[in-house]
Amino acid sequence: MRRRRKRRKREGKLPPGVGPPGAGLGGVRMVELASFWVGDPLGPIEIASIKSFLRHGDSITVFSPHALELPEGAKWRDANEIYPSETIIRHRKTGSAALHSDLFRYALMAKTDMIWVDLDVIALRKFDFESEWVFGWESHSSINGAVLRLPKDSHALAALLNLQPEFRGLPEYMSGFRRFRYHLKGLGKGLTIDRWPWGAIGPRAATHYLKKTGEISYAMPVSAFYSVPLVEASRFVTPGALSLAQVSPDAWGVHLWAKELRHIIATEHGGGIPEGSFLDLALTEQL
Q1: Inter-CA distances, 117 with 27, 46, 136, Å
Q2: Residues 121-155: pLDDT tens digits?
C-alpha cells in the first residue's frame, strides 16, 4: 500500500500585507521560474515565452554560461552556479545540448525552489501552483518536462540525479531487443548517458521514476500545458487556427514545440511570423 506524502505545513501566521517567502507588495507571492539557454541568441519563440511569464507577474531567470540579451524584466545568472556548464554535455550521436539541459534542470530542483520552464511555453496565467510537484501529462502514457518542479526530497528526483555523465549502464525502462542491442554496444558493461538514445534521461526517465515512486499521482492533465499536440504545431503560426477561446479553460500555458515550429516557420513562412497568428499575438503581447 502506497503511503501518501503529507503536504508541508506553512509555519506561523504572517503580519497583514506580508506574504510568504518570495512575496511581493501586497502579499502576492512572486513565483520564481528558471530556464537554461546555450547557443544562438534568443529568437521570437523564446522572447514570446519570457514575455508571457513576466506579463502574468512571475519572475524568470535564464541561466547560461555567458551573458544574454533578455527582454526587460528577465534576469540572467551564470549557469555554473547550478551545474558545471563551461563544457556543454551533448548527445554523442546528434550533438544535441538537450542532454545538458536535462542535467541542469534536475540540479536546479535539488538546489533551489524554482520551477523549471522551457522557453517555448506561453503562460496563460500566473504559475502559482499549490503543489510542490509541478508537471503534466503530454499523452496518456508520458509526462513532458517543459514545465517541471519536484521537491528536494522527491525519490524520483533522487533517481534522476544519479544519471550523471560518468554513470554507466542502461535506462531502467529499456527492454526487449532494444535493450539487448544496447547491451551488446556496451560489451555488457553498459554505456555512458551520452550514448543512450536521444532524450533518454528526459521525459521518458522522469515518467519511469515518477511511476515507480508513485509521484505520478501529482501529474496535471494534458490540458494543463499540452492541449496542442506536436502534430498540430502549425496552428501556432497559422492565422485564425488557434485562439485563446479554443484553449482549455484549465490550461496554465501552452507548449509551442519549438524545434518543430522553427522548421515550419522556415519552410512554410519564409522565416517570418505570420501576422495575427497565435505566436505573433504572444510576441506582441496581445493575448
Answers
A1: 24, 11, 12
A2: 999 999 999 999 999 999 999 999 999 999 999 99
Please state, in angstroms and rounded to a whole number, the distance separating the CA atoms of residues 49 and 253.
Answer: 10
Domain at 27-283, CATH from 3.30.300, 3.90.550, 3.30.70, 1.10.357: 3.90.550
d(CA 153, CA 143): 20
Task: Say what angle helices 258-268 and 44-55 make with each other, to 10 degrees.
Answer: 130
Q: Under DSSP, is residue 33 helix (H, G, I), strand (E, B) or coil?
A: strand
Rounded-to-integer distance, Cα 187 and Cα 30, Å: 51
Q: pTM for the whole thing?
A: 0.87
Q: Give the residue extent of every domain in the chain.
A: 27-283
Cell 523549471 locates to 116
Between CA 102 and CA 203 the distance in angstroms is: 9
pLDDT in tens, 47-75: 999 999 999 999 999 999 999 999 999 99
Residue 82 CA, chain-centre distance (Å), reads: 16
